[in-house]
Amino acid sequence: MGRPSVFITGAAAGIGRATALLFAAQGYHVGAYDIDEVGLTRLAADITGKGGGVHTGVLDVTNATQWAERLAEFHAEAGQLDILINNAGILRAGAFETIALPAHQAIIDVNLGGVLTGTHTAFEYLRDTPGAQVVNLCSASAIYGQPELASYGASKAAVKSLTEALDLEWEAHDIRVIAIWPLFVDTAMVDGVETGTTKSLGVRLTAEDVATGIWAATRKRGRLPRVHYEIGAQAKVLAAAAKYAPNWAVRTVNKYFSGT
User: Fold this and answer.
1) Quick one: average pLDDT of 142-170?
2) Which residues have CB under 8 Å from 209's CB, separation 6+?
3) Where is the Ketoreductase domain (predicted)?
4) Residue extents of the structural domains in the chain
5) What is the pLDDT of residues 196-211, one digit of tens each?
6) Which of 41, 75, 111, 172 is deepest in the core (most CB within 10 A)?
């Protein structure tokens, strides 16, 4: 076995970029993919400038052909696929009826379809790498449906279910599938987003916070399987409330924070 490898989508900026830099610094051969070629070029320069190994490529996560090509290229270079990080995502905020239907559909296509397509395509490489892992980026905004983030939350809730199912199915192949749950992160994705919950809860996490959480989660393979990893105090509190409080109370709390 060569040095470990990680394939990251949405790697040109934000959480994906921070994660790529962290894994490269820890000795991983990084596959960094995005539709932003300029951002990928800058990332590659930063990684190689510090002696790290990186392979970049253009990847639209809704395109199955591109997924097959990029994964094959990366595997040919790295020789194995230890971790797939499905980070690419898009967000549109606003009243549900004011957002054009194609924009809602794009959110589902990228945030859910991209994860489904990529994970399905990567299976053969993950299966052939002992102890492989899949990391899916969820969102604490999907713990309970958030006003003004309806389709975004729905896409992440679906990723939650997909993650849980595949973690059970793929245990037989020694593939671990986990979900990372930050709340709002200070990246370009939330620039200009002003919903009730972003105003009341604020944007308290950095991309580096989430990258550190991803790194820590991929280190933990204890006797008791764990699938969900909340990042930050707010996400932990919201997850605990959703788990233990009655549904009417959770609804009331979300109604309060969203200002509806």
Assistant:
1) 91
2) 182, 185, 231, 232
3) 4-193
4) 5-258
5) 444 444 445 788 989 9
6) 111
Helix 14-25 × helix 207-219 angle, to 10°: 50
For the chain, list the strands marked E by DSSP: 5-9, 29-34, 53-58, 83-86, 132-137, 175-181, 228-230
Nearest to 227 by CA among 171, 175, 182, 180: 180
Of 62, 66, 70, 52, nearest in space to 7 by CA: 70
Q: What is the pTM of this model?
A: 0.86
- HSE-CB at 38 with a 13 A cutoff on CA atoms is 0
- 242-256 average pLDDT score: 59
Distances (CA, A) of 25 to 61, 77, 89, 155, 181: 26, 19, 24, 31, 23
Report how far residue 130's alpha carbon sits from residue 29's, in angstroms, rounded to the nearest whole number.
16
Question: Contact 5/31 with Cβ under 8 angstroms?
Answer: yes
Q: What is the DSSP string of 195-218?
A: -HHHHHH---B-HHHHHHHHHHHH
- Tokens for 82, please give them: 């230890």
> Which candidate, 41, 30, 36, places its Cα nearest to that of 58?
36
The mean pLDDT of the chain is: 86
| pLDDT in the model for residue 200 | 41
Question: How many angstroms separate the CA atoms of 205 and 213, rounded?
Answer: 11
Active-site annotation, residues:
152
Statement: residue 239 has pLDDT above 60? no
How far apart, in whole angstroms, are the C-alpha atoms of residue 14 and residue 5?
Answer: 20
The angle formed by the CA atoms of residues 73, 45 and 114, to the nearest 5 degrees, is 45
Report whether 141 contacts 200 (CB < 8 A): no
d(C-alpha 226, C-alpha 15), whole Å: 22
